[in-house]
Amino acid sequence: MVKRLRPIVPYIPLTIWSVVILFPLYWMVITSFKQPIDINRGISYVPWVDFSPSLHAWQDLAVGTVPVVGPLRNSLLAAAISSLAAVVLGGMAGYGLARFSYKWGPWRNQEIAFWFISQRMLPPAAAILAFMVMFRYLHLLDSVAGLAIAYTGFNLPFAIWIMRDFFAALPRELEEASLVEGATWWTTFIRIAVPLAMPGLAATGILLFIFSWNEYLFASLLAFESAKTMPVTIAGMATAIGTKWWLMSALAIVSMTPTVLLGLLLERYIVRGLTAGAIK
Amino acid sequence: MARQTSPMLATPVPGIGTAAGHRVARTKPVAGFFVNPAAIVVVLLSIFPFVLSLAMTFSNWNLLYTGAQFIGLDNWQRLLGDATFRRSVTNTLWMTAAGTVIQYAIGLGLALSVLRIRRGQRFFRLVFLLPMMISPAAVGYIIGRMQFSETQGPINDILRHLELGAVPWISNPAMAPWTIVIADVWQWTSFMFVLLLAGLQSLPEEPFEAAQVDGASSWQIFVQLTLPMLMPVTVTAVLIRSLELFKLIDLVRVITAGGPGTATQTVTLYVYDLALNRGDMGYGATVAYALLILVTIYALIYLGVTRRSVENAR
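^ Those are the sequences you sent over. The predicted structure of the assembly is below.
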C-alpha cells in the first residue's frame, strides 16, 4: 500500500503551492467583475452562483476614469528602450570580457566583471536621490527618456554578467576561422558570435524588460506625473481608492498581462536567463 | 562539479566563466572598443550617482528650501539618535531573514518534489513562474491588500468559517511584518525553485547511485550528499534574494505604507519618505548610505562565512 502511494506523494506539495499561487489570481479576476453591491453583501467566491458578473470596472478603465493608456505606453517605452540599450552595450562588454584579456591597474577580467555586477547588488536607494538631482539639472525629471536612461544604468551590469557567460560558452573555432580569413573582430562579433548567442541575448533582453516593466522605486521618484508607469499608478491607487477592489483588480490585470504572457510563452528563455549567472 | 561555481560571489576565483586557458594572450586595441562604452555608462549612471549621494550626506540640502550648506557629519550624528532609522533597520533585517529562509525551504521542497514526478512537470514549472512576472506593486495589492483584507478578504472569511476567528493581518503591529513576508514569499519562492531545480539537475548521478547501492536512506542522502553538493547554488540564491530583500519598498508601500506606526517601515521606504514627502535630500541620502554600508558589511561577512562550504563542494 505504502509503495503504491509513493509516486503520488510529491504531487501533494506541488498541488498545494499551485493553489497558493493560483487562488489569489483567480480571486483578482473574479473581483474585477464584481459590483460594489456584491462586495458589500459579503464574501463571494463563484461567479454566476454567488454573484452576477458585471463589466462596469472594465468600462471604467476603457472610458479612462483611471488613466491606463498613458502608463502602459510609458512602461512599454522605458522597459523596451532600456533593455535594448542594455543588451547592446552589455553584449559588447560581455563578449569583450569573454574573449580578450583586460588589465585595469591591478584588475583582470574577473575583477572587472565583478565590479560591473556589484553595481547591481548595491541598494539603489543610495543612487536614487542623486538621480533626482542629476535629472533636475538635465531636465529629465518626469520624462520617459530619463526613466529609460536610469533603467539602462540599472540593467547594464546584469546584462554584462550573463552575456559574458553566454559568449564564453560558445565554441571559438568559428570565430577564429573568420579572423584567419581576415575579418575584423567587429565583423566576427556581429556575423558569427551574435547570431550564435541569440538565445542568450533574447533571454537577457526578456528578463531585463520584465525587471524594468515591474520596477517601482526609480519610477516613483523620477516619473511621478506624465511619465508615470503602471506600478506607480497601481501603488498610487492603493491608498487613494483602496476599497474600490473591482477597479484595482482590473488595473492589476492590465499591468501584469504583458509580462505574464511573455513568461508563459518564453519560459525557457526566462529560466535560462535567471540561472545563467548562478549555475553552469 | 568543477564547473559548478557561484560567480555571483565572484571574489576573484580564477577561470570562472571566462575562457580560461583559451585567452587571447595579448590585449588588442580593439578590446577596449567592446568594454569601454559599457564602462563609461556604468561610471556615469552608477558610480557617479553613488559618489554624488555620498557628497549629499554632508549637506543640509532640502528641496523645500533654497540653498544648501556643508554641515559636516551632522546628518550622520542625527542618524545615530534616530529611532525611526533604528526601527527601519531592525524591520528590514528581520523581514530579510524571515523571507529568505522561508523561500529557501519551500523552494527546495518544491524543486525536490518536481524532480520526482513524471507527468505534469511543465505545468507546475509554468504555474510557479507566474508570480515572478508580476510587479511587486501589484503583488502587494493582490496578496497583501485583497487576500489579507481583514473584513473583505477570503482568508479571514475562511478562518471565520473554520471558527478560528479573524486575524488582524494589517492592523496589528506584530502581524503586519508577517503579512509582508508572506507576500514576498508568494512572489519569490519561485526564484529559489528555479535556481535550486537547475542546481539539482546539474548534480552528477554517480555519488547518488553509489549511496543507494550502499543502502543509505533518503534522509541520509539528502543531508550528506544533496545539501552539501548544492551548496554553491544555495549560497548564490540566498545571496541574491537577501540582497533584494534589503531593498524592500514596493510591497510595503502598497500593503501597509510602513505602518501601523513604524511596524513595517523599511530603510528604503524611509529614504523614499524623507525625499518625497519632506524634501530632506541630505538626510535621505545619509539613511540610504547607511543601508549601503550595512549591505556591504553583510555581503562581505556572508561571503567569508560561506566560502569554505562552497569550496568543499567543488
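The longest helix of chain B spans residues 83-115. Confidence is low (pLDDT under 50) at residues 1-26 of chain B.

Shout if you want it in another format.
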